[in-house]
Amino acid sequence: MPVSIFDACIPTFLQMLTCQRAILDKAEAYAAERKIDESILLNATLFPDMFPLKRQIQIMTDFCSRAAARLSDSEIPSSDDTEESFSDLKQRVTGTLDFISRLNPEQFQGSETKTYDIPLGGGRKKKMSGQNYLFHFVLPNVIFHASTAYGILRHNGLQVGKLDFIRPPK
User: Fold this and answer.
1) Domains annotated on the chain, with CATH
2) Mean pLDDT of 17-32
3) Which of 108, 125, 144, 149 is 20 to 30 A from residue 49's alpha carbon, by CA?
4) What angle is formed at CA 40 by the lines to CA 51 and CA 142, rounded to 5 degrees?
5) What's the Cα-to-Cα distance from 124 to each of 31, 89, 117, 139, 170, rounded to whole Å?
């Protein structure tokens, strides 16, 4: 039986976002316990030419919300990228979870073969089928930015493991 775009996209996004929000909870508690200014962790990178933690979360949530909107033929939510605290980032993740939780499978019907004009940055665009867009562009980016955010926090001493990354809290 073929997997629908909805089934490949929405449960995966819900899992990744829920895990990231729980990791951000742990990071906030870690910073408070250790008396670390949140801005230090929020602006931390693994290497100087990388985006900081807060930008990794912003990009991850943008990929989830924009892809879900495009593939469901819904209006793409806007975001200002003004988060400066763990609380702000958790609100952003929660907002993304709320948005994608309201979508239903019927809204995604036909999206696998529909052609989308995807902005790539710098004014460039690429035409992709919904299936290629999700499997070859969106999901790799979501996983990359979630993994990088996890790696930044782990590198800075947060005690998290693989299960924190893949298993949503109950």
Assistant:
1) 5-108+125-166 (1.20.120.450)
2) 98
3) 125
4) 35
5) 39, 28, 10, 20, 41
